[in-house]
């Protein structure tokens, strides 16, 4: 690393305390993030990146800097903020510690130039890696939620839309798409912002229908595109790698194209006739069977699915479904949501049992 600057001649003793405190802060923040990458996301790549950053920081945390520490004389140990005492979900823990790490790295980059010229350059590169880590972590977390979501609510206009969405979230829903073809943009932004806040409070993903610009404006988790909307590549340039992009498909050709273009998930349907796709011929259960056999990415059967036909859709191979009227127009949206989730869980369990028995029979 080279020789450090002579403290007595070139820099005040406080410099050592600043570097020591921020090396501690950055390493602690990274360790908290690393634990979730390891045990929560089970991502060896992200875990290793956190570990490498911590070890790189440790190489700069010399005995000289540790000796500059004066915890009893540090006025900052008594300072706190109410937000530091409250963490309501994993995302808040991760974001708080990623921000702490990035802020500490910036401090180290600037003050490190006074301590050792090479330190500033090294910490600058680590800061960029921390930004990339944040994007990768957000993307991984969203993808994990998407993989684990069996039920997808697509909204339709309703005077009590917020109340309906919250009841569904209370029933266990983890994926919501805001869809309103007729509202003006001011109304869309207001409603989308309110629904996003609800979704994030309940740790659910929030997707915007069609509008990439609106998804950015309200900080949605992603966008769902129809066949006539912008190309997936265009949406990806605007949204970045960490957000989710879905595409509606009605036949095997559209499914293949969406997958080739990099969609994170696809809608498969409409399975049955539905007023939300007026004039659109249903794709039927045959397309469900095709998707079950050929789609390597998550997909949701959609279109006229309700409590009466969900078993048929599942039997055709669907393991995830998207619904509109079955929840939005239900007398009790929370109970309707719970019913769908319980049926999907039960059907999935029965399917696994049948699959195990079939394997045993073949053996």
UniProtKB/TrEMBL annotation:
Cofactor notes:
Binds 1 Mg(2+) ion per subunit.
Cite the binding residues for 4-amino-2-methyl-5-(diphosphooxymethyl)pyrimidine.
177-181, 209, 248, 277
Task: Report if keyword Transferase is assigned.
Answer: yes
Cellular component per GO, a single term: cytoplasm
- Pathway assigned to this chain's UniProt record: Cofactor biosynthesis; thiamine diphosphate biosynthesis; thiamine phosphate from 4-amino-2-methyl-5-diphosphomethylpyrimidine and 4-methyl-5-(2-phosphoethyl)-thiazole: step 1/1
Q: Reaction catalysed?
A: 2-(2-carboxy-4-methylthiazol-5-yl)ethyl phosphate + 4-amino-2-methyl-5-(diphosphooxymethyl)pyrimidine + 2 H(+) = thiamine phosphate + CO2 + diphosphate; 4-methyl-5-(2-phosphooxyethyl)-thiazole + 4-amino-2-methyl-5-(diphosphooxymethyl)pyrimidine + H(+) = thiamine phosphate + diphosphate; 2-[(2R,5Z)-2-carboxy-4-methylthiazol-5(2H)-ylidene]ethyl phosphate + 4-amino-2-methyl-5-(diphosphooxymethyl)pyrimidine + 2 H(+) = thiamine phosphate + CO2 + diphosphate
Location of the ThiD2 domain: 17-135
Keywords linked to the UniProt accession: Magnesium, Metal-binding, Thiamine biosynthesis, Transferase
Function, in words? Condenses 4-methyl-5-(beta-hydroxyethyl)thiazole monophosphate (THZ-P) and 2-methyl-4-amino-5-hydroxymethyl pyrimidine pyrophosphate (HMP-PP) to form thiamine monophosphate (TMP).
Similarity comment text for this entry = Belongs to the thiamine-phosphate synthase family.
NCBIfam families per UniProt: PRK02615.1 (NF002727), thiE (TIGR00693)
Stated name of the protein: Thiamine-phosphate synthase
Native organism is Zarconia navalis LEGE 11467
